[in-house]
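Regression report. Comparing outputs from two consecutive submissions.

Submission 1:
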Amino acid sequence: MSYGIYESQRLRLRPLTMEDLPEVAALLCDERVASALYCGVQPDTEAAAGVLRGYLSAPECYPFAVLERQSGAFAGVFLLKRYGERDCEETVYLGPAFWGRGYATELIARSFSMAVELLDAEEIVNYVKLDNTASVRAQNTLGFHLDHVEYYDNCPKGLGIFRRRAASGTIRTGRWRHFKGGEYQVLGTARHSETGEELVVYRALYGDYGLWVRPAAMWQQTVLADGSPVPRFTYLGEI
C-alpha cells in the first residue's frame, strides 16, 4: 500500500517503516506513553517489533512517523485506520519531550482531510481514557462529542468513545445565530494551507460587518449556557 508525506504547520508525517523500530520501541516500552495505548506497555524491543509489524500489515491502516519539521526529530506515531464501513479510527502517541506543545491537537486537525483522502471516511472515532485529561481536552477542542463510555478492569475511570464528522458538510451557507445572540452570515468553508484544518468563513451582521474565520470544529461545538448544553451556533436560514 503506497501513500505519501503530509505536513502541518510544525510537523511532517511520513510512512512508518521497520527502520523506525528503535524510536517506536522507545515509546512502546515507556510506561508514561504506552500505558494509555490499547497495546499497553511492551516489555522489550522484540515485543515492540511485533506491534510495529502489526501496524504495517493491517489492512486499510496508514501508519505515520511524526517528525518535527524544524528539527527533524522523531516525535511520535500517528495511525489512521478503517473502522466499520465508512468510519476511521486514529491513534496518536508522542514522546514525553514533545508533550505540552499542542502537537496532538495539530495532528488530529490535520487528519480531518486525510481521513477523507485516504479512507473516504465520513466519521472519525477515537478511544480515549477519560483520566487522560490532555487527550480529552483535545477531543473537545476539535469538535468531537462523547458518544458513550466503556469500563474495563485496566481503565476504571472509563474509556470514552469520541466521534466527529471527518468533513463538516453540515455547515450551510446562510444566517446563523451565536449562542450569545449575535447573528452572522456563513459564506462558505475553506482549508488552512499549512495545517489542513477546516475553517468557516463568515461575516458579522452587525457593527462594521467584519469578515472572520473560525475552525469548523469550534463552529459545531456544544457549549454550556446557564448550566445547559446548547449549540455554539444555530442555523436560521438562507439570506
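Submission 2:
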Amino acid sequence: MENMEKKSLIDVAYREIRDRILSFELTPGQAASDFAIAKQLQMSRTPVREAIMMLRRDGLIEPSGKGGVVAPINEEEIKDLYIAREAVECKALDILIENGLITDEFIGKLRKYNQEVERYTDENNIHLTFEPDGRLHRLIVEETGSRRLTEQMGFYALQNDRLRFLTLISNGRAKLVPGEHEALIRALEQRSVKKAIEAMRWHLHYTTNEYIAAIKHWPANEWIPVVKAIEAGRTEKRNEG
C-alpha cells in the first residue's frame, strides 16, 4: 500500500511538472529545484525528486550542478530533435509501404487529421492545429506495429510539444503545413517509398529551418509571454467547459 501511495505521488508530481514545462510556466533554462517545486506542490521532496529524474529521461529537464534546469530551446536542440524524428518517421514510411500496410482506412484518418489542421489554419487558430498535426505524425509510426518505434516517437513527440509553439512566431509556416501533409499522403497512396520519404524530409527540414529562424528573430522574453497567454486562455476555456 505504501509503495502504491508513493507511486501515485510520483505520478502526480510528474504530470504537474511536465505540464508546467509544456505550458512554459517553467521556462527553458529555469532551475528545476526539487525543494522549490515540492514546496509549491505541498508534498515531500522524494516524489518530486523521482519525477524530475523521469523528466530528465524524457529530455525535458537537464542536469545542472546539484539540481536540474528546464531543457533549453536553441538551434542545437531543434536540429537534434528533428534529425531523430526524421530517422523514426522515414523508417516508419518504409515499413508501411514495403510491408503492404497502407489501407484506405489509414489514408482516410491521415486526411481527416490534415483537414482539421487546414480548417484551424484557415480560422487563424494556429495553436489548435497542434493536436491533429501530432495525431497525424504519431499514426504513421503507430501503424507500423513496431513497439520500439512507437515508444521513440512518443519520446520525441513530448519534446516537440514545446517546439510547436514556434509556429506562432514563424513567418507563415502554418499555412504551408497542410499542403506538405497532402503531398506525403498522396505519396503513401501511390505506395512510393522514395516520394513519401522525400515529402517527409522536406516537411521536417522546412520546419527545422523555420523554427531556427524564429528563435533567432524573436528573443525568448518576447515570444514566451505570448505562448503563456495562449495557454492560459486554453486552460480557462477547459475549466469553463
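Expected: both submissions complete independently.
Actual: both completed, but the second showed a warning that disappeared on reload.
Relevant detail on submission 2: The chain has two domains: 2-71, 75-218.
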